[in-house]
Specification:
The complex is a heterodimer of chains A (about 475) and B (about 300). Chain A is α/β, with parallel strands linked by helices and about 475 residues long. Chain A folds into 2 domains: about 65-170 and about 330-385, Periplasmic binding protein-like II (D-Maltodextrin-Binding Protein, domain 2, 3-Layer(aba) Sandwich), CATH 3.40.190.10; about 170-330 and about 410-464, 3-Layer(aba) Sandwich (D-Maltodextrin-Binding Protein, domain 2). Helix content of chain A is about 40%, strand content about 10%. The radius of gyration of chain A is 27 Å and the shape is globular. In chain B, helix 3 (about 80-115) runs parallel beside helix 7 and helix 7 packs antiparallel against helix 10. The termini of chain B are far apart. With about 300 residues, chain B is mainly alpha-helical. The chains are: A alpha/beta (about 475), B mainly alpha (about 300). The interface between A and B is large, with 57 and 55 residues.
């Protein structure tokens, strides 16, 4: 016998179907109306005015609470410890210090305007991209501007405003394995230009045939960042101050030709920064030259047990005799969102850290996290970066070298810069990848320049 | 007059005032009142973002200021962008490397674990599910070390047999299979659990009868097990198709989409627009992805119905 499921009218004899249908339509209609109404809360399309770029002014009274975002990790601990010093000066300001995945959270927070912090520690290259959401700090920074490294002011500037409190300077240095080079009879201090570096690498290779003396970065992102360090040294960058691409230039040609030469002559070890291959070849003295930002100094201190103490740092070679001996690679600043509840108090906090001797000494000087001081960057504020008054001590992993002096001297040679375009990270798909193709031997420097310029213009610049 | 009759008379008096329509509304409206909180939350967290994103997909907006209406511009840009098609191609290749293999391995492992003759079944079930509950970042770090071209143990073992070093994560040819292997290792335990639940619903008398009729184990697998877990298998295929086309975290933490965008999946390509604050293009990309995944899912569901 077949069993039929009960018909709807049988199951609910008193439910007239048209009426229920009306109710259902009504409920969904209401939900749709609510949703459409809410959708109207989205961005204004085609009619609104740009937000008022008013400048931040000093607070009337140093009293209240602020929420500060920092990256998790050792730097969080360093800044956390500095809060106590800040409160000695400003006892009525309570700092809520939060470790946050800034890259993942900041954009959404600024767009939605929900739970916006009063201050954020941010990579320099990201600052211009968020400028619409940030306070213009040019008025409050005015007393300090003359003493801040020009490159740091430039990367935080956009259309006449300054949107970040310049924090650290990350000068490019040439790290070298002094012990290994000495064994090969090479005097590292005689390296003054990149041609000298190539010759020293050839000599080392002749001494140790399985070596790839110069580090060639395999990560497209870091490879592009390193390219920009070389470019910074030559006083150029991927765009000019007006956002116009300037890859197609003799300076980029010179840099890429150098990298191509290293690869073609077998003078490089191609590895991802501090990946397994990189660490192994650094620690076995197959790699002996690392042109990188000051923060590479972390590796001999923590990751290279066999060669710790053998490494030294010196300014980068120059691209031509007498040229600048350093370029900027990375760096961070402090930003203050427009939607912050107490932006003036956040400024006082950052002013203390960046420009007050008690503040920058609390961060860079000896502390619980770094008993010998924080030595992976230097302050960008001139009075804090005095070669004669080191904030951190000599570095045992660099044979007791005075890294402070080397870095400060190199930092002083970094030419001025321009704001990093908002699409810089996206360029890795083109420029970063094409550099790798060149290191694979499938592209020439000229092709890297022409193909990257075309792709970046089409997919990034034209879509702003 | 009793109390009940007094109440009854009041009720009788009230009824004509409200009318039958009010009574009906009260009775039939109650369920909708009860689901109203759900509808409100659904509207707020599903319908609203959907409409917002759809609207956004026709604009050029970078997260602040005025959004510029660009019509179909974002869609035409994507549909003519080699990077978009390449990301879909990468996802399709990963699907081919993952889903069929996972279905076969998952089914065989589930059949073995379902057998009463296997000892320590509980241990194996736990062991298979451990990768699924292990944080991806930890697994990714292990993968990077194990598959390092120069110092990874995998190449060390291959080198022992005279096989030259392979750039598992550094060459376009090998990066996808290596990533697929990670995905398989991490999620096959989940597939086994799903398939086990399907196997346990099969009446054991079917196998006994087949055994009496002289059917081999292979024949039982093909003629009894597979047909009876077909629905579960299709469910798994749909689920993993969605997962593969939305795959983001694996390539993000292991290869960052490289080398040369060879592991930039559809999900990672979409994410790249968002991180560049190119929100209009990102929204258009997400809608295109929704359509593609929807079509694929409908295809598999249709296949299932056809077989039924």
């Amino acid at each position: 016998m077949h069993q039929h499921p009960p018909a709807r009218s049988e199951a609910k004899p008193n439910a007239p179907r048209p009426f229920r249908r009306h109710l259902r339509f009504g409920a969904f209609g209401l939900a749709a109306l609510v949703a459409i109404g809410l959708t109207a809360c989205g961005p204004a399309i085609g009619s609104g005015e740009a937000a008022d770029p008013s400048k931040l002014q000093l607070p009337a009274e140093p009293k209240g609470e602020i929420t500060i975002w920092d990256r998790s990790g050792d730097l969080y601990g360093v800044f956390d410890a500095a809060i106590a010093k800040f409160n000695e000066k400003y006892p009525d300001i309570t700092v809520h210090h939060e470790a946050v995945d800034i890259g993942a959270k900041l954009q959404n927070t600024l767009i939605t305007g929900t739970d916006v912090p009063d201050g954020v520690f941010l990579d320099d290259q990201l600052v211009p991209g968020f400028a619409d959401h940030l306070w213009d700090l040019s008025d409050v920074l005015k007393p300090y501007l003359g003493d801040i490294a020009q490159q740091k002011v430039d990367v935080n500037s956009l259309d006449g405003g300054i949107y970040g409190v310049p924090w650290d300077l990350d000068p490019g240095l040439l790290f070298y394995n002094a012990t290994a080079l000495k064994a090969a009879g090479i005097d590292a201090e005689s390296i003054k230009t990149y041609d000298d570096l190539l010759q020293a690498a050839r000599d080392y290779k002749a001494f140790k045939p399985d070596a790839g003396p110069i580090h060639l970065e395999q990560s497209p992102f870091l490879g592009q960042l390193q390219l920009e360090m070389y470019a910074s040294q030559l006083g150029t960058s991927i765009t000019d101050a007006h956002g116009k691409l300037r890859l197609d230039s003799p300076k980029y040609q010179q840099i890429l030709t150098f990298l191509d030469t290293v690869q073609k002559e077998g003078l490089g070890t191609r590895a991802e920064y501090l990946g397994p291959t990189d660490i192994a070849t650094l620690d076995s003295a197959q790699q002996v030259f690392v042109p990188w930002a000051q923060w590479f100094g972390f590796a001999p201190q923590q990751l290279l047990p066999e060669t710790t103490g053998d490494w030294r740092a010196m300014p980068l070679p120059a691209w031509s005799d007498g040229g600048p001996r350093s370029g900027a690679m990375g760096g961070s600043s402090f930003i203050i969102p427009k939607d912050a509840k107490n932006p003036g108090l956040a400024w006082l906090f950052y002013e203390f850290l960046a420009f007050d001797p008690a503040g920058y000494a609390a961060v860079y000087g000896p502390n619980d996290i770094y008993p010998n001081g924080l030595n992976t960057s230097i302050p960008s504020y001139g009075p804090a970066a005095d070669p004669a008054k080191p904030l951190f001590g000599t570095v045992d992993a660099l044979g007791g070298q005075d890294l402070w002096k080397v870095a400060v001297d190199a930092g002083a040679q970094i030419p001025g810069g321009v704001p990093t375009p908002t699409w810089w990270g996206g360029a890795v798909d083109y420029l970063g990848n094409n550099i790798q193709k060149m290191l694979d031997g499938t592209m020439t420097p000229e092709e890297v320049i022409s193909v990257s310029t075309k792709d970046i213009q089409t997919n990034l610049v034209d879509r702003q | 007059m009793t109390a009940s009759s007094a109440l009854g008379s009041r009720a009788v008096r009230r009824a004509p005032q409200r009318g039958p329509r009010w009574s009906l509304l009260r009775r039939r409206g109650a369920p909708y009142l009860f689901i109203a909180p759900f509808l409100a939350i659904f509207a707020l967290f599903s319908v609203y973002p959907l409409i917002f994103t759809l609207r956004l997909s026709f604009t050029n907006w970078h997260g602040a200021g005025t959004a510029e209406w660009v019509g179909w511009g974002n869609y035409t840009y994507l549909l003519t962008n080699p990077g978009f098609w390449s990301s879909l191609g990468n996802s399709a290749v990963l699907w081919l490397l993952i889903v069929p293999v996972q279905v076969v391995i998952g089914l065989l492992a589930a059949v073995l674990l379902n057998s009463a003759r296997i000892r320590m079944r509980g241990f194996y079930r736990t062991a298979f599910i451990v990768p699924f509950v292990t944080p991806l970042v930890a697994i990714a770090q292990i993968w990077v070390v194990v598959f390092d071209q120069n110092y990874g143990p995998v190449n060390d073992v291959l080198g022992f047999f005279g096989i030259p070093d392979i750039g598992w994560l550094t060459t376009s040819e090998w990066a996808k299979p290596t990533l697929a292997l990670l995905f398989l290792w991490k999620t096959t335990g989940f597939a086994i659990i799903i398939l086990l639940s399907g196997l346990q619903s099969i009446d054991s008398s079917l196998y006994e009868a087949a055994s009496l009729d002289g059917a081999t184990r292979t024949r039982q697998l093909v003629s009894i097990t597979v047909p009876l877990v077909r629905r579960t298998l299709m469910f798994l295929v749909v689920l993993q198709t969605l997962a593969v086309f939305q795959m983001f975290a694996e390539p993000y933490v292991v290869t960052k989409g490289g080398p040369y965008s060879s592991t930039t999946t559809a999900g990672l390509f979409l994410y790249n627009h968002i991180t560049r604050a190119d929100l209009g293009t990102g929204a258009a990309n997400s809608f295109l992805l929704v359509i593609i995944v929807l079509v694929l899912s409908l295809f598999f569901v249709r296949m299932l119905r056809t077989k039924d």
